[in-house]
Every structure is written in C-alpha cells, then in structure tokens.
Amino acid sequence: MIIDGTRLVVSDNSGAKEVECIKHKGRYAAIGDIITCAIKKGVRNSKVSPGQVVKAVVVETKKELRRPDGSTIKFDRNACVLVNPKGIPIGTRVLGFVTHELRAKQMLKIVSLAARIF
Amino acid sequence: MLAGRSASRAHALRAASHPPPPQASGFGPPAPSFAPDSPSEDASTAEAFALARTLARVAEEGKGGNTRALHVAPLVYWTRVMVLSTVTNRPQLRAMLARMEAEALGRHGATPAPGPGPGRSTWELLDFGDVVVHLQTADQRAFYDLEGLYADAEDIELDAVAAQDQAAGASYQVRL
C-alpha cells in the first residue's frame, strides 16, 4: 500500500536510489500502479537527479499481494522502477524482483528488462 | 514396503538423469536448464517457432532491420520466443504492428494481449503469450540491449521461412 509520502527504493539502474511518492490514483497504490515521485537520493552524473519529479511503476511492496489461487507474495521493501511519460523505463536493467502481475497491466517492457521474475 | 522402495529408487534414477541446473552467477537470467520437454511442450514450442517465423517474415517484408528470433524458453518461464526487429520511424513501426497482428490472426489464429495500443514511443511490443515481439528504433535497441540481456538464448533459424513459404505456396508478390 503506497500512499503520498511513502519512500520507495528504486530497483533499476537509472541512477536514482530513493524516491518519495507524491501522487497516486485511488486510495493507495499497489504493484503495477504508476505513481508520481520526487527523487530524494541519486547517483551523481546520471540520467535523473535529486529533486526531479518522475513517474514510477511500483514493483515490490511490503503489503502482501493476493493471487487468484489464494497464495500471497510480499517483499521486504517497497520498490519501484522509473519510467518516462511514455511508459518506457528510464534505466536499462531492473535489478530487483518483479511479479508477473505487471504483464497483465501491459508493462511487459519492465518484465523484459528484469532478471528475477516471481 | 516394496512400493515405497521402488518409488524412492525411481526418484533417485530420475534425479540422476536430470541433473540440477548450473548455478547462475552475477546479473542476468539464469543459465539454461537442460531438462527434456514433454510432447505437449514440444508441440507448444513448435507452434511458437512457427508464429515467430511468420512475424519475422512480416518484419523483413516491412524493411525491418536486423530481425532476430531468440529461443528464451530455457531462460525465462513467461514466454518461449522473442522476436526483435529494428525500425527507422514511427509510421513504419505502426504499419508493422498492424501487419503482424493481421498475419498472426490470419495464419495462426493468434491475437495479441489487449493493450493501450501503440503510443508515441519508439519501442513497442506485441504479446502473443508464447511469442513476444519487440520493435525498436536503432538507438533504442542499442540503448536497452535486449540481445545482451538474453545472450544465452539460441537464435532460431529464420532462413527456413523461404522454404516454408515455397511449400505453402505463398501468394504475396515481390514488388520491384
């Protein structure tokens, strides 16, 4: 459950390390939702810089995600992948976990760049 | 019990004939596993290969550059084949997407997963389940380097397309 003010780890190689959610749709954002974030921490000389406002896709949440077969999956952290306004990932590799729920939400580009899909 | 002893022996024999996959090191998809496919898996893989060859042919006819089909089933579980092709501009990308959808539906009865449709980006993809098509411009293809990420995948022979079309009596004409 991601709401305004939630800090998320960036799990791609875009250069950002930590972002804060500043806008989301609905009551809260979950895995596969697009949120608006402000970059709080980042690497120098990268594509993005601290203070920049970007869009991101939530890929990991501490709140468990229920699946149709009754199983649940949850992660130790809240994480996201930065995307541009056209929905294309800013980084070239997704370093953390992604779930196959992203495929149902037409985010196969992120799944294609990920090494660990669960 | 005898049944239990034979079952455990069968399990041991199965484990010996199918060694565990090698450990993956570093970033990237895990190394290919070498477990043999079941007959149903072989049929699904053959269908995926046929669809991939059709889509690759459409890409070549649409002047898509450096078209490749990668057999990624040993690396990932969410698809079997990835088709990559380079386009030069967005009108060409849109036209190629439309032709691919039409050919896949006409020849194989396959429809892509519903999506928002081609937007304003220079990287679009079609998701047919077992086959995923990536259409990118040259700079996007070099930037994201999907071929490097799936370097362990084997290339699917696309020269069989010409022979396949001759056998099927293709009716399309080459315009000079």
From TrEMBL, chain A:
Organism placement in taxonomy: Eukaryota, Viridiplantae, Chlorophyta, core chlorophytes, Trebouxiophyceae
GO molecular function ontology, one term from the record: large ribosomal subunit rRNA binding
Family label: Belongs to the universal ribosomal protein uL14 family.
Keyword Protease tagged: no
Descriptive protein name: 50S ribosomal protein L14
InterPro entries for the chain: Ribosomal_uL14, Ribosomal_uL14_bac-type, Ribosomal_uL14_CS, Ribosomal_uL14_sf
Signal peptide: none
Gene3D superfamilies: Ribosomal protein L14 (2.40.150.20)
Single GO cellular component term: cytosolic large ribosomal subunit
Keywords: Ribonucleoprotein, Ribosomal protein
GO BP terms: translation
The keyword Membrane belongs to this UniProt entry's keyword annotation: no
One Pfam family linked to the record: Ribosomal_L14
CDD domains in the record: Ribosomal_uL14 (cd00337)
Domain of life: Eukaryota
From TrEMBL, chain B:
Compositionally biased region (Pro residues): 18-33
Residue spans of biased composition, Low complexity class: 1-17, 34-43
InterPro entries linked: Iojap/RsfS/C7orf30, NT_sf
Molecular function terms, GO-annotated: ribosomal large subunit binding
Transmembrane segments: none
Record Pfam families: RsfS (PF02410)
Domain of life per record: Eukaryota
GO biological process, one term: negative regulation of translation
Region (Disordered): 1-45
Family, as annotated: Belongs to the Iojap/RsfS family.
NCBIfam families with a match to the protein in the record: rsfS_iojap_ybeB
Name of this chain's protein: Protein Iojap, chloroplast
Organism: Auxenochlorella protothecoides
Native organism taxonomy: Eukaryota, Viridiplantae, Chlorophyta, core chlorophytes, Trebouxiophyceae
